[in-house]
Structures are given as structure tokens and as C-alpha cells.
Batch of 4 targets.
Target 1
Amino acid sequence: MLVRKSPGTDWTVVLDEEDPVLGPTCQERTIVVKPVADLGEVPRYVRPLGANLRTAGLAVPTERLLPLADELGAVGATNLNMLGTKYIVGLDEPHDGIFDTLVLTRSDALRWTHIAFRDTNQALTAALRENRAANTMRDDTAIMEVIS
């Protein structure tokens, strides 16, 4: 295990290569990095977090993100951020799986998983093209153009 921190309390980074299973962390300005050999195993590694799983920072190829996002959403992730993107959501994005403005107007049992890319249109278009080419999209998958 390797720990790097700022001189004060601005940030702490922990590199943990011992066990890929992720447990609760101290949050806030702390990040725990756990390299994995197989992206397909990531949902199993984070499943123990259960209802405490919210945001996951990812460094994965865009073409592999959408299938992984489906699986991470199924185990509880509601906010997926590609490294280098913002982690604070705006009013037009779901927070913890729920659009806050909808909560003010009605009860909504629908939960969303938000994905933050550096260039959302480019990333989603590339991923959708890749999925179409591989013919791996499910029949119930909705395709939406993101307008920024």
C-alpha cells in the first residue's frame, strides 16, 4: 500500500494493490486507487459497498464503458466519472440517482446512473457505434443524442 498526501488536509491518495475488493473509505478529499486486471470483475469488487456506493471514478476505454456502466448501475453506482471530469453534479444531472427537481414535484422510484465524460457527445457516439458494430446492444436500449 502506498499513501501520498498534501502537506495539509487538501487531499490524500492511497494506492492499494493488495485486495481488489473495495470497502468503505473515509471519503471527502481521499481517493483509493485499486488497479484491476479484468474490468468484468469490477462490479463484484464494489458489490460489498451496497447502498453506500454512489460515485465511481473510472479510467477505462470509452468503448468498454457502456457495458461496465450497466453492471455498475445494477450494483448501486449512480454517478460514473471518467478521470479528469467534475464530480459535482448540476441541476440538470441526477444526484445519487435522482433528479432533485423531480423530487420537488412528484415521487419518482426511477433511479438514474450518470456518466461524466470530458466530451460527452464524442464519447457516447463512439461507444454507441462500437456497440452497434459489435451487435451487442440489447433490444431495450434507448439511443439518445446528447446536446451540450
Target 2
Amino acid sequence: MEKYSHILNEGWTFGGGVKMGIFDGIIGNASEVNLEKLKEEVKGLLTPNETIKNAYKIIRDTFIFTDKRLILIDKQGVTGKKTQYHSIPYKSILHFAVETAGTFDLDAELKIWVSGNELPIQKSFNKSTNIYKIQSVLAEHVLGK
């Protein structure tokens, strides 16, 4: 089984266009999160010297960019009480790409290739989401400052 294959079933789109879970059917935009409040909510996930740099919330789910890794928080079920936390170290991200929405496209896409997976992790955003901002934040963390 591939290194991060557990994410395949948790909401990112991989290869052949199969969409599942975390971010399916998004109608809203990604919005930045209050970092102080988030820090309190996820303090048990962070290492002692780890710092949250940026975070985005989409409906019930969250992307967290720390100084060491990308954390994906997947709220599941009707109540959202069941939660999965995915941790992807930046050193495992080999390549990433953005595709902007065209005139007739409904969404923009972010693709992330992770070590151990042949196919990219893929996330679709609605047309009004600032995909450049998300790409910029990811680039800053993957490529360094």
C-alpha cells in the first residue's frame, strides 16, 4: 500500500477523477482561520517546537500549514464529531501545481504529488477561491523562504 494511500479514501481526488470525502461539493470559499483559536484546538497535535503559520477553513474541514508539515483536518459524519487528522511533512511533497478556473470551468484545482504516491492529491476549489494565495502559502513552506 502506498505511503499516504489512507488519504485516498478521505476526500482528495486522485488520478482518474474519483472524488471522495473531505472537500467534495464545496460551495463556499476557503477562508483564513483565527490562528490563536486554532492553536488551542489542535495543541495536542503539534510538537513542542512546532508553530502554525497559516490555516484555511473550507466548510467544516481545515488545512493547517505549520513550520514543519501540512495538516489536513477532516470532519466526518453529519455532526462532524468524528475527525481524522492527516499529517504530510513538507519534505514528502515532491511537486505541486495549480490550475485556474477558465471561462467555462466551475473550479480551480490544486495538485500535490507526495513521495510514495504515483498520482497527485488533488483538491478542487470553487472559481472565486484565491487559488494563488493557497499556492503561495504552500510554496513558501515547501520551497522555504
Target 3
Amino acid sequence: MLVYKVSAETGISCNPEKEICNTITSNTFAEVMAKIAEMVAKVGLPIVVIMLIWSGFLFVSAGGNEEKLKSAKSTFFWAVIGGLVVVGAYAISVAIENFAKQL
């Protein structure tokens, strides 16, 4: 009974006691992939920014220590790689979605 109340609050018009409810509001696979990529970008980009700020802090706090500078450079490098992966995945998703719409 609780499941039915929750689904009623979300606007889904089906009875989970009688049938399997589809909670996905997208109609095509391309729309689902676009929503997933958008969510990954919304979560991933702030993490990339935080890691870039953290690497800047590591550069400043290194104070000439070679080991700390090496760690700061590595953190910066992987933060940039992570940012490129997030942006690249989003761009590929948009390209696939646009291609699928043309079919």
C-alpha cells in the first residue's frame, strides 16, 4: 500500500499491485542516455572543480618540496583528465542523441 501512495505522489498513473509501473519518463533510449550523461556532468564537473582547487592548494603548500610538487602535479593532471572525460562523455551523448533523432 505504501508503494502505491508514493507512486501516486510522483504522478505515475498505474497500480503497482496489479502491474509493473514504468517510472522512466523518457520514451527513447537516446533520451535515457542523454539524461544519464547530463546527471553525470552535473555531478562530475563540481568534483573536477574541487580537485583543481585542491591541486592548487597542494602547489601552494608544497613550498619547494619536490615530493609534494610531484603529488600536486599528479593531482592536477588527473583532475584535468577527469574533466575531459566528463565533458567528452557528455559531448558524445549529445552527438549520439542528435544522430538518433535524424534516423
Target 4
Amino acid sequence: MRAYLGVVLAVWACVGGAQRSSDPNDIPSNMNRPIMDSSKLPDIPLGNPESMKTDTLAEPLDEEDFNYELPMSDAIASHSAFDPIFMAGLFEGDIQLASESDLASILLGGPRQRSGIADQHKRWPNARIPYVISNSFDKLGRATIATAIKNFQQLTCIRFVARTSETDYVHFIKGDGCSSSVGRVGGGQAISIGMGCGYVGIVMHEIMHAVGFWHEHSRPDRDKHISIKWANIKPNMEYNFHAYTWEKVKSFGISYDVGSIMHYGYTAFSKDGNNTIEPRRNQKGVEMGQREDLSNSDKKKINAMYCKGTPVGVSTSPSKFCDDTNGYCDEWALLGECKKNPVFMEVSCCLSCRKAKQNDVLGCRDQEKYCSLWSKKGECTSNSNYMALKCKKSCGLCPKSRRNLPPSELIPFVSTLT
């Protein structure tokens, strides 16, 4: 099998495996690339981590996990020689491939899916990703994963749901290094968050793979935006830098993004610490190799793949777990800001807006059992702010009456939200 692949690889290298793109603006970019070793395929681990078979599951993420306050220094310098995504030693560092035939197809088959998967069957139905989580994560590990998930749910239309009986799902596991398959591959598939991978940005990078995205540097138009320093790459690691054609690529019409969370850093697979990738032009405020957050183009590509037309940063439905991040959320929701300023309020005052929506559906009601008694004692006047929030019915502050409250009893909505 390996000998046969070697012959095919030699032929493919001679004719130029990265064929002419159908994109008229693409630049043929394989002329100066080293020819791959034709004697063998890379010897890399394949399939899910073995530890996944015997892993003990924990309860799904809960409100405590989503509300846990993470350390402030949760980021990796983009110029750092250390990038956790390479620790697993898989294809391109962190991509789990199911079999040797998948690896051969990628390296020998010429064009393949890049940036975003084109195959609809490999996307998650209705943008919902069922998940389970290993019992091996401590409180900080669970909170890190929860924060990464919350970012996706606040900024894109992707939704994570605790698995019940779904056949296809992701399994957050503490494996060897950081890794994930690309897209929905069928059955349980690991998202490994091992030792050294406990950063929100790293978890988001791996989730992005599972959602259906490859590394940005492998797009066929990359050579217009970056320069690969082949002489600085570790021997036999050059295959991690090959780009392919547009035939199966889904870029969704979104430009190449050096600042994508899916882009390699400057010294990826460097043999001596020198740069292996350099941007062709400096872009102010853009960091190549950042592992902090989804870039604007990352968010656009996700929504283009799963919910075309949905603006980024807007949740199309409330997440299962949400909370308020501002002490005035109750008041703002009471003043109708959930409808007036939906983008800000969905992110900052999710819980209060959900309660306000329930009040609209169920009718105005008291939230404390002693509201009627407090009202009779004059608390609606002497303790007006609290009573307006908790005892609207007893104080006569249901929607029609609420409009007649004097301005002195309303906490003004901050100007930054308008």
C-alpha cells in the first residue's frame, strides 16, 4: 500500500498536485515548494484517542461552569514559539483523521475541502452540536470549555446541547494534546483538551475544526497574503503547509484572514526558531496566529455555513444557560431595552431579557410571596426600586401602569447602549 502511494505521490508532485485554480485571481504558488517524500506517507496517529473508549462522563456543563470567573491572563502571545495546537502530533498539528485512506486522499488526491467543508453531510443539522464532557476536567477546565462554548453561542448561530440519544456528537476529553476532527464525521468524535491546552482560545480553535473549518493557511489563495519560508521548516514537516485548489473549497466569498483564530503562527513547525510564515503586508491591529477570539471573518464564515443572512454577534435563539453581567439588567429589561437594544442585551442581560419575555407571555406577576403585604405597608413608595422589580402586580406596575411611573423612579439607561 505504502509503495503504491509513493509512486502516485511522485507522479502527483511532478505534474503539480496543487492544480490551477478556477479562481481567476489565484496565483499558481507551488513552483518553489519542496517535493514531498515519495517513499511514504507521514507516520501520524489516526482516529479518536484510545482513552475515549474508557472515558467516564461527567454531568453536562451547568450555570456554575458558565459563570466561573477565569484568570485574566488567558491568552498565548502570537509570536510565541509555543502553540499548543502542535502538541498532539497529528495532521497539521491538531487535525484528527479517521484513517490512512483519508490521509492519502488529502496528500495524494489533489483538491480537497479547505477553509470550510463543502459536504453538507459533514455539517451539524440545524447548527446544533450535541456534546458530552469527560469527568477528568476540574472546575477550571470545565469553565474554560464553557466560556469557549458561550463565545460561539453569543457570536454565531452555533448552539451546543447536552447529548441525550443523538448518534453524532462531540466528546470533550482530556487526551494527548489539543485536537479535533473537521466537521461532523459520524458517531462520537473527540475534542481533546489535554495538558497545556487549557486556554479559551485553544478550545475555540478546536471547536472551530469540529464546526467544519480547516486551517486558514491551507486556502489556495494564501500565497497572495503570506510567504512560506520552506527552508526554516522541520524536515519532513513540509506537508503541513501545502495548499490546494478551489474545487471543493468553501470560502463563502469571505477574504483570506491572517488574523483568523485558525491561522498558523509565525514559527509553526520551525526547525530553528526562525519564522516559517510571514504576512506579505502588515495590517494594523491584526495578529497572525492569535488564539484569543474568533475574528470577524471567522464569525461570518460560521454563519454563512449554517445560517446564511444572520448577522454576526446576534444570537438567533437564547442559549440554554445565560446570565446577567450588569447590575442594572433588571431595570433595563423593565424599560424595554431587550427590544430596543437586542444585540447588547442578549449578550449582557440574557437572564433578565428571558424573564421579561416570560412576563410578556405569562402576564405581569409578583415574584415574591409577601408582595401584597409589603404593598399594604407602603413599600411600593418607600422602597420603590425593589418593589418595581419584584412586586409589579401588587404595586400596580403592570405594563399599562408602568408607563405612568414618574422619571425619578426610573434608573436611566446608559448612553453607551443607544
